[in-house]
Design goal:
Layout lengths: L2 H14 L1 H8 L9 H14 L9 H4 L1 H10 L3 H22 L8 H12 L8 H19 L1 H7 L21
Helix pairs in contact: 1-2, 3-5, 5-8, 6-8
Length: 173
């Protein structure tokens, strides 16, 4: 890191707080996924939880960071299952649309995800199992994200209560 980057980080820290500044200043480098795999996982997660008028989606929340770390620190068999599933999604994209996942339209990507999600509770194939695992980790990551806490719960993460008053409903007294 050169001095110019260091001063940008220090300046951003003073303006926005240390965690948010570091997240903006330094792009995330996946620990397990390669670039194409990270794109595929992040895009599928963003289709599962898309951005809307009220809040950001899975990509905005940075769920790829959580998923990448969970898989990175997972068991070797689990890691191989993710690699196999990602390869299966790539194969499906090429079979259906004649191109890899990154090169097809978002609508086509949504179609692939919809097929993966179909009858999810009864699926035992690679794509069905992958969808269930991806959805679970996406929801976990989104729920734990600062974006979710700030936008959907209406408060910042640094809120600390000095006391916890009891319920004041007459039926609970």
């Amino acid at each position: 890191m050169d001095r110019r980057n260091l001063f940008q980080i220090v300046g951003a820290t003073a303006a926005a707080g240390p965690v948010e500044a570091m997240q903006r200043a330094l792009p995330y480098v996946p620990k397990f996924f390669n670039g194409d795999e990270a794109f595929l996982v992040e895009r599928l997660a963003d289709i599962i939880i898309p951005k809307d008028a009220k809040s950001g989606g899975a990509a905005d929340a940075g769920v790829i960071k959580y998923i990448d770390l969970v898989v990175h620190y997972g068991e070797a068999g689990q890691q191989q299952a993710w690699r196999n599933a990602i390869a299966a999604v790539e194969t499906d994209a090429k079979k259906r649309f004649g191109n890899g996942f990154r090169r097809i339209s978002r609508e086509q990507q949504e179609e692939i995800l919809a097929a993966m999600a179909r009858d999810e509770d009864q699926r035992t194939d690679v794509l069905g199992r992958f969808f269930v695992n991806l959805k679970r980790l996406t929801v976990e990551a989104y729920h734990c994200s600062s974006l979710h806490w700030k936008q959907n719960l209406g408060r910042g993460l640094s809120v600390a209560r000095s006391e916890f008053p009891g319920c004041e409903h007459k039926s609970h007294a």
